[in-house]
Amino acid sequence: MVRHLRSEAHAGRMLPFVIEYQGRLVGQLTVAGITWGSMCSGHVGYWVDEAVAGRGVMPTSVALAVDHCFRTVGLHRVEVCIRPENAPSRRVVEKLGFREEGLRPRYLHIDGAWRDHLVFALTADEVPEGLLRRWHRSRNRSTPNAGN
Q1: What is the pLDDT of residues 42-62, one digit of tens each?
Q2: Every domain of the chain and the residues it spans
Q3: Do 68 and 60 touch, CB atoms closer than 8 A?
Q4: pTM above the 0.70 mark?
């Protein structure tokens, strides 16, 4: 697995990241399917240890990765495809303001069957200030006495 991730990363088709929280490994985020040319796109997949879920670890990680993709790597579009019943993952993209684009029926083969996925996307021009900055700003507006 590590060899495959490294090979794809060297070829410019994937960006694998580990997620640490308080000095311990708690998840992984991968930008895969990176396509260049007229598309300049990739898709994000992630998981996080449920012991740290709800602490902002994954939205922060996704925002950092998307900002890196847009500002450093030069991608124009990033997608996240999520199974409709995966409410925690859907909440991550909702918090970050990803646009829901629709359903991809029988999109990925998971657990022995072809599973539907909802598609969420952002383009670089939708977050000129950066996704992390936008998310932090929205969190501060929704928190009473933020910054006090």
Answers
A1: 999 999 999 999 999 999 999
A2: 2-142
A3: no
A4: yes
